[in-house]
Write a structure and sequence with these properties.
Elements: H1 2-25, H2 35-50, E1 87-93, E2 96-101, E3 106-111, E4 116-121, E5 133-138, E6 142-147, E7 152-157, E8 162-166, E9 174-177, E10 183-186, E11 195-199, E12 204-209, E13 227-232, E14 236-241, E15 244-251, E16 256-260
Antiparallel strand pairs: 1-2, 2-3, 3-4, 5-6, 6-7, 7-8, 9-10, 10-11, 11-12, 13-14, 14-15, 15-16
């Protein structure tokens, strides 16, 4: 009953406040705000914003239709010893699935049926161990993994053997094998750009590109949860920042990049006031 009473008096208070403003300022009365309608209005604006994209290149084309079919589930909370506990990062190659388990700081390799092929790594600072395991990429003969806490890229064989560490790129955030170009390592902290093509054997940067013009304060964000990329053969690498709505398309053949601009929000964004 107490909550219902407060709900009945609140609109009256708003109406009285509006009337007082009318008398003192000679402005039109301000109608009361219904919280439910305000929420619906905000959701409508967001829906309109999300649906306001231009028609895509594949719009209405059956040959590019994406179909998602749930085949089976790997792992279960009911298992006493699951294959992995916190599989955040994942990559696939043919029938091979490699998972970065944050809970155990290890790589878990399984096949598409869920059978364990091998497990490697573990928490630590020595060769073959991880201190904040990050994103990975499966190549033809090796697997590259971001070792964020150590600022390394660790290289493993396809059968789970630790091979070497790369340190030529400062604070790596994402890795992706890019066909004949080799290994692409992404970092906001390494000079020369965001994308660095690395010679794995020599642990040296062959060339760098990509300038996303990050917002002030975000240009130094080197979290492994920030930059994400993929390679589109034969020459293009595309990356995006989780903290900024930007897509950067890189042409590795001529070492150029373009940044796709973001759309404006459908309403003004008012920064909250912070009391000191």
């Amino acid at each position: 009953m107490k909550g219902g009473s407060a709900g009945r008096h609140l609109p009256v208070f708003i109406l009285l406040s509006s009337a007082l403003l009318t008398v003192s300022c000679s402005d039109p009365p301000v109608p009361p705000v219904d919280p439910e309608s305000a929420v619906e209005d905000t959701l409508l604006k967001w829906q309109t914003y999300m649906e306001s994209s231009a028609i895509g290149l594949w719009e209405g084309r059956e040959d590019h239709r994406v179909v998602i079919d749930r085949r089976w589930e790997i792992g279960s909370d009911e298992l006493a010893e699951p294959l992995f506990y916190d599989g955040y990062f994942i990559d696939t190659s043919g029938d091979t699935i490699v998972i970065a388990d944050l809970a155990t700081q290890s790589l878990v390799c399984i096949d598409s049926t869920g059978a364990l092929l091998w497990r490697a790594g573990g928490e630590g600072e020595g060769p073959g161990n991880f201190l904040e395991i990050g994103q990975m990429s499966i190549g033809d003969s090796a697997i590259a993994v971001v070792n964020s806490g150590m600022s390394y890229v660790d290289i493993y064989s396809r059968d789970g053997r630790f091979l070497r560490r790369l340190s030529s790129v400062r604070n790596p955030q994402c890795v992706r094998y890019a066909g004949d170009y080799g290994l692409a390592v992404l970092s906001k902290r390494q000079p020369g750009g965001d994308v660095h093509i690395v010679d794995v054997d020599a642990d040296s940067i062959l060339f760098s590109l990509g300038e996303a013009a990050w917002e002030p304060g975000n240009e130094g964000n080197w979290s492994v949860y920030d930059l994400w990329c993929d390679f589109f053969p034969p020459d293009h690498l595309v990356y995006v920042s989780q903290f900024e709505c930007k897509i950067i398309i890189c042409d590795l053949s001529n070492r150029t990049s373009i940044c796709v601009p973001t759309r404006e929000f459908p309403f003004a964004v008012i920064e909250p006031e912070i009391e000191v």
